[in-house]
Specification:
This protein is α/β, with parallel strands linked by helices. It is built from 12 helices and 8 strands. The strands form 2 sheets. The protein has a 5-stranded parallel beta sheet. A 3-stranded parallel beta sheet has the order 1-2-3, with helices on both faces. The protein is globular and about 60 Å long. It starts with 8 loop residues before the first strand and ends with a helix.
């Protein structure tokens, strides 16, 4: 039974298996590989039981589809994500009051990706898309992706950028490979490239979401802001620089207007307080990153964190209700 004595929560980055799902990226988990696969594929038993126990009213399910982004043939990649999204829609349809979805997209072709996003939002009621850090050669700030950002804005369907799970480079140190460090650097850098590219001047109502309490951006925000101002509005503003200013406003403006972050897989009170102080509680949403992390751990963390009850409600469910129009 759903425990309505605990604060209500909506989980934003929660994964499920459907179609050509890459499970190998989930290398660090509290579960054994065999158990992880069972939990990834399960919806109605272990997942719902944990949600009920922890007061999680709804999850936005997404497919960890980084393998799709490695497919060279565009037609094959497009067919693969359509199959996966159709499978995800079937999962959601069995429990429509507890689950909705983020679409998987084949970003090899931005126009096809935009069309697939629209199909999933209109036909299935999905709330946006979860895409991996680009593995196709061009970053998501490239002009060819303008059509995807414009469609995302028009549909009111945010894009959630997730680590790719690709092979780590520049280090043979296992302790900082993958989700421990490299993925955060990779995803945070991608988000900053989008922000600094001017995309949100062209698409002012588009929304970008990243997980893991902002992939270290909250901690770096003061320095990002300070160095941007020194470069473009301070003593260096009149220098003939090899690069030009591409945004109308400083990074903090877009971060506090167009960027949302989640608590997925980062259950640190210090990091949460830093994010609240840097971004504001209005920009943070609850997530467990299930089944890569336990719903129980994520819920206990947010319930006990030393933040105000007003901010706790915003993070647990109110911000998701505002962004996605949830009525739960």
């Amino acid at each position: 039974m759903f425990d309505n004595k605990r604060i209500k929560k909506i989980g934003i980055e929660e994964h499920v298996a459907s179609g050509e799902t890459n499970l190998n990226m989930f290398l660090r988990s509290p579960f054994t590989p065999e158990e992880l696969r069972r939990r990834m594929s399960d919806v109605s038993e272990m997942r719902l039981a944990a949600m009920d126990e922890c007061g999680v009213a709804m999850q936005v399910l997404s497919i960890p589809n980084a393998l799709v982004h490695r497919i060279q043939d565009v037609a094959e990649a497009s067919a693969t994500v359509k199959k996966s999204n159709d499978g995800l829609a079937e999962i959601v349809a069995k429990h429509p009051t507890r689950f909705t979805g983020f679409a998987a997209l084949a970003i090899q072709d931005p126009a096809l990706a935009a069309d697939e996003l629209e199909r999933c939002v209109v036909q299935f009621g999905f709330k946006g898309a979860l895409i991996s850090v680009n593995l196709t050669g061009d970053n998501l700030d490239h002009d060819k992706y303008r059509i995807l950002w414009e469609r995302s804005e028009a549909l009111g369907a945010p894009l959630y950028i997730h680590p790719s799970g690709k092979t780590d480079v520049n280090t043979d140190c296992l302790e900082i490979q993958g989700s421990a460090w490299n993925w955060g650097v990779e995803t945070g850098t991608t988000a900053l490239r989008v922000i600094f590219s001017g995309i949100f001047d062209r698409c002012p109502n588009a929304t970008l979401i990243i997980g893991h309490l902002g992939e270290m951006i909250p901690y770096a925000l003061w320095r990002l802001e300070n160095k941007w101002k020194q470069t473009f509005t301070g003593v260096n503003a009149d220098l003939d620089l090899p690069y030009k200013r591409r945004t109308e406003f400083s990074p903090a403006y877009y971060i506090k207007k167009n960027l949302m972050i989640t608590t997925s897989g980062h259950f640190s009170e210090d990091a949460l307080i830093c994010a609240v102080n840097s971004f504001g509680a209005d920009r943070i949403m609850f997530s467990a990153d299930y089944p890569n992390e336990r719903i129980e751990d994520a819920s206990e963390f947010i319930e006990k964190a030393a933040i105000s009850e007003e901010d706790r409600k915003k993070i647990c469910y109110e911000n998701a209700q505002r962004l996605f129009g949830f009525d739960v």
